[in-house]
Amino acid sequence: MERERDEYLWFAAQVLRWIGVDLTEYKRPQMERRLTSLRQRWNCDNWADFFALIRRDPRVYQEFLDKMTINVSEFYRNPGRWEVVGRRLAPRYLKLSRPVRCWSAACSTGEEPYTLAMVLMESGLSPNRFEILATDIDESAMERAKQGIYRTASLEHAPSGTSAKYFEQLGEDRWAIRPIVKQSVRFRRHNLLADPYDHGFDLIVCRNVMIYFTEEAKMRIYPKFRDALAPGGVLFVGSTEPIFQPERFGFRVFDTFFYEKISPSPGR
């Protein structure tokens, strides 16, 4: 067992050097279990063989990324929380004399940033009044997001009328996002644990991702989110990811699972 742990840490170190992703920042039991399952499925007896395989086989490398990033998403996930964006945040944004800047961090296959675009449009903001940066570490997932084609199941929680207004039905089980939704969203690869953060965002949406990180990683990410927000900006997290004592990171509670930046940042 001790040897297995040492081999996993060796594997994590190789991955960090190769693609800049630090597996030790993710909760180890869940991550090691998922990757062990993948390793065994490809008949690799040890972590060294598995690392060699993901380096030479693009299919296995993509499966590795998929296991690591958990690409599970849907439109309007937890609808009541999205209502807060329309009811409490959009009125603020309508008063701005500049475009609203939003960031959908770890956006997976695009349901989240497109949901945000639809919520803002339904609240009276035209597409030229806001811009959404959508980022993820998995470039394959973002390619699917750019295509904007989804199955009916992903629209289960979308409000009545949304499908016809913002999607074009391509078949019995396929829907394409309309260009009016796509035009305000731009996609870019970004590693939350390693890459620099942009600044000046009015809203950052990062949901159902932080639960996979260690507490140490969260302690570094939350202050980076705070600094990336404009004064009065808000961080929107997932329903399993409440921030305890948000004041430690320069936030105050704005609504359930919404945290507003306190200005100035602590210690400044």
TrEMBL record:
Domain CheR-type methyltransferase: 1-264
GO BP of this protein: methylation
SUPFAM superfamilies (UniProt xref): Chemotaxis receptor methyltransferase CheR, N-terminal domain (SSF47757), S-adenosyl-L-methionine-dependent methyltransferases (SSF53335)
Gene3D superfamilies to which the protein is assigned, alphabetical: Chemotaxis receptor methyltransferase CheR, N-terminal domain, Vaccinia Virus protein VP39
InterPro entries on file: Bact_Chemotaxis_MeTrfase, CheR_C, CheR_MeTrfase, CheR_N, CheR_N_sf, SAM-dependent_MTases_sf
Catalysed reactions, as listed in the record: L-glutamyl-[protein] + S-adenosyl-L-methionine = [protein]-L-glutamate 5-O-methyl ester + S-adenosyl-L-homocysteine
Enzyme class: transferase
Record flagged with keyword Transferase: yes
An example molecular function term from Gene Ontology annotations: protein-glutamate O-methyltransferase activity
Coiled coil stretches, renumbered: none
Keywords, comma-separated and alphabetical: Methyltransferase, S-adenosyl-L-methionine, Transferase
EC number(s) per entry: 2.1.1.80
Protein name per the record: protein-glutamate O-methyltransferase
Phylogenetic placement of the source organism: Bacteria, Bacillati, Bacillota, Bacilli, Bacillales
